Structures
1.
Amino acid sequence: MEHIERDVVIIGAGASGLTAATDLVKAGLSVAVLEARDRVGGRLWTNDIDGATLEIGGQWVSPDQDALKETLADLGLSTYSRYRAGQNVYINAAGERSLFEGEIFPVPARTEQEMVGLIDKLDALVAEIDPDRPWAHPLARELDEISFARWLETQTDDQEARDNIGMFIAGAMLTKPAHAFSALQALLMAASAGSFSNLVDADFILDERVVGGLQQVPLLMAERLGGDVFTNQPVRTLRWGTDGVTAISDGITVTARFAILAVPPVLISRVSYEPPLPRRQHQLHQHLSMGLVIKVHAVYDTPFWREDGLSGTAFSPYQLVHEAYDNSYHGDPRGTLVGFVADENADGVFAVPAEERRERILASLATYYGEKALTPQVYYESDWGSEEWTRGAYAASFDMGGLARYGADLRAPVGPIHFSCSDMAGKGYQHVDGAIRVGHETAAAILAAR
Ligand code: FDA
């Protein structure tokens, strides 16, 4: 067992932990980053699958994500736009397919009116929410007691309007059914992206991608940190007291003045603490859980949908694949579609054999794009729920009532232990931008406390 001493030990080499480590080193502190996996990046993972470069985890950058954009510039990374020329596809509850442009789906006039009304109402509520302190809203408790599904029912009797608006937060963001999280949690999700309108606008929220893949961010940060990043080192035990910490992984023991747990909050309890964490932390970590989504890539000889005048963007809360996009890789002449199967739909297809799951998912893509979608060259399902060191996707959110009750304590340090992760962010919550933002803030808190 190797034993090293540093000012700060960082547990987790995702975007958040590596950002904190980078800032601390810049400020003259010594660090060791212990990473459980055999690679850095956590939920950022760009890989070659059967000859196609695919983003298995996070990939999109939106215009307001200035913390991420600053990091991209610092690392010398460039971006390119998502392909979006042409018409989008919408499929209604009756299975009828129609084409549209802009953000509002082609629905009956009354449904459209109800959807616009809901978007306006949500935008107004979101404008009152501070994403860093949603629990401070005067109605926080009330909004945290009602599920987002039930809240939508109190606003409109139009089922299709509710299904569509619900989808933007439920299937598309928190990747949990709308009855499984509160209206306050939904408002935090929208506030973290600036407004609910921004979430509805795919051209905003899914604007750009990074040349070479978004995993370049953690890879280049780790490269700069050099020998201070240790992979294959799951931290099993963290001893802590007023004079510092000792982190014990499978091969290394690090003693340090501070520790940063830069892991998804659902994994904090995987580490043994000596002495145990306080009651408050024991409780609050039990009220967070990961969503579940399958990100499916299908690569074709050509982007055939473009010839049909389609952008590749498709939505339907009634389809197995509730949203899909043109995800063709920069410089690759082939065409790639990416589709998402979330929450209970993911449960359903994980219950059947892999071959049948593939058939069902491709059949859903074919409903949007036609028969050609049935025969990709390359097909890949990202399965983050099976990953020991993530356990779901995209991120963690509170159960009903949890955000108002525990939110303020989520990032409160415990003695020398600090917490850092995208799942604890206000602005950029559940996104790489939030991971980086919280990483900067955690490093600043340690520099102020030393
Ligand atoms: P992250 O989970 O990345 O890092 C934590 C690290 O800790 C991991 O490397 C893990 O192995 C390690 N670890 C855990 N326990 C440990 C232990 N005991 N000891 C040592 N190491 C330990 N975001 C976005 O901005 N745009 C997008 O398009 C998407 N899309 C998207 C798709 C999919 C499929 C996923 C899964 C996620 C996204 N996201 C996204 C979300 C984004 O990827 C995510 O918010 C950040 O990458 C999280 O970074 P963190 O560093 O906070 O955690």
2.
Amino acid sequence: MTIPSTQKVVLFRENGGLDVLRYEEDFPVPTISASQVLIKNQYAGVNFIEAYFRSGLYPSEKPYVLGREAVGVIAAVGKDVTNLKQGDRVAYLGGSSFAQYTAAEASGKIFKLDADIDEETAQVYAGLLINGLTTLTFINESYKVQKGDYILVHAAAGGCGLLFAQQILAKGAHVIATASSPEKLQLAKEAGAEFLINSSTEDIVARVKEITHNKGVEAVYDGIGKDTFEISLEVVARKGTLVSFGNASGAVPPFLISRLLAKNVKVLRPSLFNYLADQEEWDFYSQELLRLVKEGILKQKITKVYPLAEYRQAAEDLEGRKTTGKLVLEIPQ
Ligand code: NDP
């Protein structure tokens, strides 16, 4: 495989809105160390976190090549690498995946795929790891969902939302879904949501109280952030758990910890990567995720594939609440 010296990438050089995004065609291809592999990317998953780096909510180096996950083929291996070889097809979690080539640790968050998977399957794996592992770890570690629980999932037709609904249902719990349109709620229903709340037209607090006979929910999964935090705190049951895990509407402002004593509530602000901090955690959860997919318990819905050059449109759609399920980028070969 001949490796060029420059490549096509999506990056930003300063923080800001969609206008700071650049599609560049002559960005250097990374060099690899002895322990790394160079991956020629085929498809990369689009995630909300890209908006946080771009806006400056999360700090980053500049220029910053976006992307956190992809599927590709090993183009070169460092001299100490023994577990992967040139030509292996892999899925991985790692930075700078909105690029034709990405350097990654061979012993990192990466696993081999069958060489002969079709394009559709490659797209699914490219968009599976972040949302799949987030939802899997959060329903087992942030709050361990129990049979019979009532669980509120905000933005339930989104990338994370649809995967939350399927897995919570599989644990025998009841999913209460919010989403901003009837079409989105229908998708949440198909994924396993039992109760549907239209967040554009209905009072979420009143509806959750009605559904749970005033008890509230055992846990809330809230990736919307600023706009829903107070609602989530209000609908969580006594001794319940509020898992606030994202900022789609903006960051949650500081709040007084003493507010939690009213119901002995637990509030978590987890990050996926702190549940995958060592090799044992990665092996355990990535294998479990693969099992759920292979057994058909978890179905990832890739709703749109954009060419890499059109990432800006994908970001505009995602941040503009126009999307459902998962978006992926096709990387030019
Ligand atoms: P989604 O596909 O869920 O898209 C975001 C959804 O949030 C929208 O479709 C929309 O659904 C809802 N939303 C409500 N208000 C707004 C707003 N003002 N602007 C934009 N969206 C809004 O995205 P993802 O599944 O990729 O991510 C969901 C959340 O999970 C994000 O906050 C993300 O950062 C977080 N996340 C956190 C991780 C972690 O480790 N902590 C890991 C992975 C994801 P609707 O129209 O139905 O309200």
